[in-house]
Amino acid sequence: MSWLADTRTSYDTVAESYAEFMRDAVATRPYVRAALDVLAARADGPVLDAGCGPGHVTAHLHALGVDAAGVDLSPNMVELARRNHPGLRFDVGSMTDLDRPDASVAGVLAFWSLIHVPDDEVPVALAQFRRVLRPGGVLVLGYHVGAGSRLKTQGYGGHPMRVHVHLRQPWWLAGRVRKAGFTVDAEWLLDQEAEVPQGILFAKR
What CATH number corresponds to the domain at position 26? Predict the structure, then answer.
């Protein structure tokens, strides 16, 4: 699929710059930290960080006492994650075809990683999340709130990229999550005065 290849190539290109840009992203965002605290408290077992990038969120979960591992489409991102967070597991892979056994994790986190997945492929990713989650397992999604999509041609550090960034309304994402077999527990809206607000959705299998 072209969107997969474009996403992989784009994040391979910007990996180093992206890692620097996101270095303090968790430390400076209290509501993001709170969401990770909720996940850590509710997931009674291993957690998969789907679209983990350079591994900063995976490492934060690990610091909270979570048995966390990451998967990302970009080999360069995974290489950075392994280098910066030795001892944690990071694999190259796609959230639309997770290389994990059925019912093998207690939590799945997709923090602003579904934003590059086309609308018609979101149910594929959600089905994979449900497959790898144990019954009662926790799903946490971070996303851009809005409508439509835009083509991002330049990214972190001014490097070229070619990825579509998809904005979603809370009702749209919650509806897809429910249709995939989850119960939606809570929805947070963040940065509501910003040009692009953010959302975090909590659900369980």
Answer: 3.40.50.150
